Amino acid sequence: xxxxxxxxxxxxxxxxxxxxxxxxxxxxxxxxxxxxxxxxxxxxxxxxxxxxxxxxxxxxxxxxxxxxxxxxxxxxxxxxxxxxxxxxxxxxxxxxxxxxxxxxxxxxxxxxxxxxxxxxxxxxxxxxxxxxxxxxxxxxxxxxxxxxxxxxxxxxxxxxxxxxxxxxxxxxxxxxxxxxxxxxxxxxxxxxxxxxxxxxxxxxxxxxxxx
Length: 211
What we know:
CNF1/YfiH-like putative cysteine hydrolases; 14 strands; 211 residues; 30% strand; 23% helix; five-stranded mixed beta sheet; alpha/beta; globular; six-stranded mixed beta sheet
């Protein structure tokens, strides 16, 4: 299923406010009655949704998949928006370090193959998110991601984690080879919100729209 991937910017306002979400959808000519959004709990639960879910927020999940004409969305600041498309389905994930550690990538692949899609047909795009240039981590995350030694960078006696690389390695090791990564860093790009940079809770809306 072909799809368009979108992400809002600062000029669209914080997507903590429902009215800003509605305004953004209208700006992008997306019918709010076809839009389904995930609540976000920094876990790995993913819901398969259909057209009757349009206009709702799915509670208790960090990812959505559909084979219908639903438009799917998650809010993000520094976390990874992961857009997935295949022959008959599209999906979107909110993947911060907690969700990545808990297995949201593996869960998504399992869910989408359960509905008959093949891993080799999946196309994944990891959208704007905090990159290793600014994602400094402490010993707790070094330990949590110890299986991904090659995803750490050491600079000036500090340790940085490349979450995009972790996600890509998880995808690759589970049979998904077509993976692209945005070069936009939320911390570096002033047009985007970043919790780590601003220390304020302002979110962007990541959207995948079947076409």
